[in-house]
Design a protein that fits this description.
The complex is a heterodimer of chains A (206) and B (221).
Chain A: H1 2-32, H2 38-51, H3 54-64, H4 74-99, H5 103-111, H6 116-146, H7 160-169, H8 173-205
Helix pairs in contact in A: 1-2, 1-4, 1-6, 2-4, 3-4, 4-6, 5-6, 6-8, 7-8
Chain B: H1 3-9, H2 11-40, H3 48-63, H4 66-76, H5 86-112, H6 115-123, H7 128-143, H8 145-159, H9 170-181, H10 186-215
The chains are: A mainly alpha (206), B mainly alpha (221).
Chain lengths: 206, 221
């Protein structure tokens, strides 16, 4: 049962990460290119998304969307809530990677006659990726730590499953300890990955 | 009755939930900060046992989801004969959990401080508590204001987890109005707006502190 719960936590978080990173990237482009109206909407979304607790967001999506005729099961609602939450943080990560990009390189690329699309794809994007990756991985650890929130809409994740086991065995402590150890395992893997990526980013930056 | 009228009628419920959220947030933020401020010093203690113990506490909390920690306090402690009610478990949980993060933030800021400064303060007769309160801590807070502000927002958001252990916070109030009258939209929108308002206030506070830091020649961009 614990493994089932762990698996649920992992796949839901993975989908949220896989959707949230590119979504954040797209939204950050809208911000840095200052697309009129859309840019303001994205800024509002980021500010709201960073401030809204995941518990509130998950409940909100789960009970509100069906009213607008969008039928949504609890897993989808959980994934969407996590994605919306992580994308708002990722937007800021991507945006700061873009803003920190050295202007001199852009000028050099222009002087070589590169068009905007070309130098963005060939020169800026790879370097932005290296610069942003450590922060993106850091955001992934935050996402996993926030993921128990989706238990409120009935998703049986690694945290929720401990209640189920306790209801059968009347021993709440062992499952909670094991679940805690599993979270520590997942997150320590990500933290180690983040440290390695940070070192690599430093190497590329100099 | 329209949905909005229901929400207005049930306003006291939302207001008390909001009050509870603000109370939980306020008390645990202050608690986490005060505790954290007392822990950064011992983090560089000469005693290896103290150092290892504090480091494993800080690193452990930083790898554990908040809800699991609250579960440990609320469901786990009764196994040892310690029974906490939801409020106590929630407040303790928020404070102890976020204290680890505050400690880590302050430690990071301390590492950036020039050591010569502490030495010259000691040469001027500042020691122990006075050295910490007058010289070190103000600089740590001014230098790490944005990160501390972020942490405050996390504390605020983590209060909403406590509805799972039946603390009647803002999210709980919104959710109970929703299920009683089946008005799905308004209560949650109001709750989100209130969370947002607090976080905007926090951001404003950070900007004020950063302004002070700049005047004193501290703070990184």
């Amino acid at each position: 049962m614990l493994l089932d719960g762990a698996w649920t936590t992992i796949w839901i978080s993975l989908i949220a990460i896989v959707c949230g990173v590119p979504l954040g990237f797209g939204l950050s482009l809208i911000r840095v290119r200052r697309v009129p109206v859309l840019s303001q909407i994205v800024a509002l979304y980021v500010s709201l998304g960073r401030a809204t607790p995941l518990v509130t967001l998950a409940l909100f999506l789960f009970v509100t969307l069906p009213v607008f005729g969008i039928n949504i099961d609890k897993y989808t609602a959980g994934v969407v809530a996590l994605t919306l939450n992580t994308a708002s943080f990722n937007t800021e990560v991507w945006r700061s990677a873009y803003l920190a990009f050295p202007q001199s390189q852009i000028e050099a690329a222009r002087a070589m006659g590169m068009k905007r699309g070309l130098y963005f794809r060939r020169i800026m994007l790879p370097q932005m990726w290296y610069a942003a990756l450590p922060s993106l991985v850091n955001e992934m650890t935050l996402l996993i730590k926030a993921s128990p929130a989706i238990a409120v809409i009935g998703v049986v994740d690694l945290t929720r499953v401990t209640n189920r086991i306790a209801a059968q065995t009347y021993e709440p402590l062992p499952p909670i300890l094991i679940a805690g150890a599993m979270y520590i395992l997942f997150i320590s893997v990500l933290v180690r990955l983040q440290r390695r990526l940070e070192k690599r980013a430093e190497r590329y930056a100099t | 009755m329209t949905d909005l009228e229901i929400v207005i009628k049930e306003w006291p419920r939302l207001a008390s939930g909001f009050g509870n959220t603000v109370l939980l947030f306020g008390v645990s933020s202050v608690g986490a900060f005060l505790l954290g401020a007392h822990m950064v010093g011992p983090l560089r203690s000469r005693s290896k046992i103290v150092r290892v113990a504090l480091h494993s506490y800080v690193d452990g909390m930083r790898m554990l989801p908040f809800l699991i920690f609250v579960y440990l306090l609320y469901y786990g402690l009764p196994s040892f004969g310690v029974k906490l009610d939801a409020w106590t478990a929630g407040l303790l949980g928020l404070t102890i959990y976020h204290c680890a993060y505050v400690t880590e933030i302050l430690r990071g800021a301390w590492d950036q401080l020039p050591t010569g400064q502490t030495e010259s303060a000691q040469a001027h007769g500042y020691h122990g508590f006075r050295l910490m309160r007058r010289i070190i801590l103000p600089q740590l807070v001014l230098n790490s204001a944005p990160v501390l502000g972020n942490q405050l927002i996390y504390i605020l958001k983590d209060t909403s987890f406590l509805m799972i252990i039946t603390v009647q916070d803002l999210t709980y109030a919104a959710s109970s109005i929703q299920s009683m009258y089946f008005v799905p939209l308004e209560p949650f929108l109001i709750a989100m707006a209130l969370y947002w308002a607090i976080s905007l206030l926090i951001e404003r506070l950070v900007r004020v502190v950063q302004g002070t830091a700049k005047v004193r020649g501290l703070g990184r961009a």
